[in-house]
Amino acid sequence: MSKYPSSYASLRLCPNSFHLRHFDHPLPDHDDRTAISTSRFRIREKNPLFVVFDTKPCILPILAAFCVDIQFQPISEQDLHEVKAIYDWYIANSTATFHTEPIRHDQLTTFLYVGDPVYPSYLVRYNGAVAGYCFLTKYKDRPAYRRSAEVTIYLRPEFHGKGIGSAALQRLIQDARANDFKTLLAIITGGNDASIALFVKAGFVKCAHFRKVGEKFNQVLDVVGYQLEL
Question: Would you list the domain boundaries of the chain?
């Protein structure tokens, strides 16, 4: 007998979006899922691409309210103004970047390679709205570094805490594997605990710590490196 109920909803994270579906028949057992209990329903999740909610049909409309659409739109030249607006906000308000003045469009394309299939870049849309952007870039220009890529993710502040960063990171990990990269690196300002937690959750481990290498807003800043071997 299946361990799953006769009625359940599934929230599946496809490559580009989440979808909520309802079924009225048992789900076969799958060994790659474990159960996490809550007071109203249980989420069975070990594989992050498939989540099962044990529930009755009467509360499915409640679950549907939490169903969101996350899409990854390849960045074009016409999208660079969106990228610039988000990045300029971080330049002016955050130590996440060490830039201190608004960036020019031609500067963006020195590290964001528009249309490059090896180092993809995306606008991240949340229910249709531009929530941020993410991309892979060269870790270093010298050819021997070809096996490695660097991950960058920036979200508008109002879209933090919605799982968008995790979805973006998983998309870039998927792309990195498809493009035969062996190592992904994240370079993070020390003390940026939210970013560090995002990468640690995805399996990145700390590999470097550079102390007191930057200064912004009268703060002396460390830089830390996190690495994922693919």
Answer: 8-64, 70-229
Predicted pLDDT of residue 67: 60
Q: For every residue of the chain, which 3-state class applies, written as one string?
A: CCCCCCCEEEEEECCCCEEEEEECCCCCCCCCCCEEECCCCEEECCCCCEEEEECCHHHHHHHHCCCCCEEEEECCHHHHHHHHHHHHHHHHHCCCCCCCCCCCHHHHCCCCCCCCCCCCEEEEEECCEEEEEEEEEECCCCHHHCCEEEEEEEECHHHCCCCHHHHHHHHHHHHHHHCCCCEEEEEEECCCHHHHHHHHHCCCEEEEEEEEEEEECCEEEEEEEEEEEC
Residue for token pair 């007071």: 39
- List the structure tokens of 208: 């470097």
Residue 226 has pLDDT above 50, yes or no: yes
pLDDT in tens, 64-79: 445 668 999 999 999 9
pLDDT per residue as tens digits for the range 121-161: 999 999 999 999 999 999 999 999 999 999 999 999 999 99
**pTM of this prediction?**
0.73
| CATH number given to 70-229 | 3.40.630.30
